[in-house]
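4.2 Preliminary Data

To establish feasibility before requesting continued support, the project team ran the inverse folding procedure on a target of 90 residues. The structure was first converted into the token representation described in Section 3, and no sequence information of any kind was made available to the design step. The complete token record follows.
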């Protein structure tokens, strides 16, 4: 699960599982395609949840996306960081 080609499909599947539980529990507002949004990887979850893309196609797409991301930067190079609490002027 350390490779993004594996984690991205897993995150998509978990997101859709949560969505289906919410809908099954009576959350009709979670069914309205016009209300479903996502950012970055979440866009794929929103597309699947809205019915614009099948789960199978979504998993294929995010697996490819993760593979491309892995291939773009060699293992052990590059990093991500979160900057928290930084003064706006800085």
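Position-by-position output of the design step:
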């Amino acid at each position: 699960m350390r490779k993004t080609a594996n984690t991205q499909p897993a995150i998509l599947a978990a997101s859709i599982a949560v969505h289906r539980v919410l809908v099954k529990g009576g959350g009709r507002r979670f069914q309205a395609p016009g209300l479903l949004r996502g950012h970055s990887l979440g866009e794929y979850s929103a597309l699947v949840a809205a019915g614009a893309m099948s789960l199978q196609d979504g998993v294929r797409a995010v697996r490819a996306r993760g593979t491309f991301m892995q291939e773009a930067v060699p293992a052990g190079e590059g990093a991500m960081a979160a900057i928290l609490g930084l003064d706006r002027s800085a």
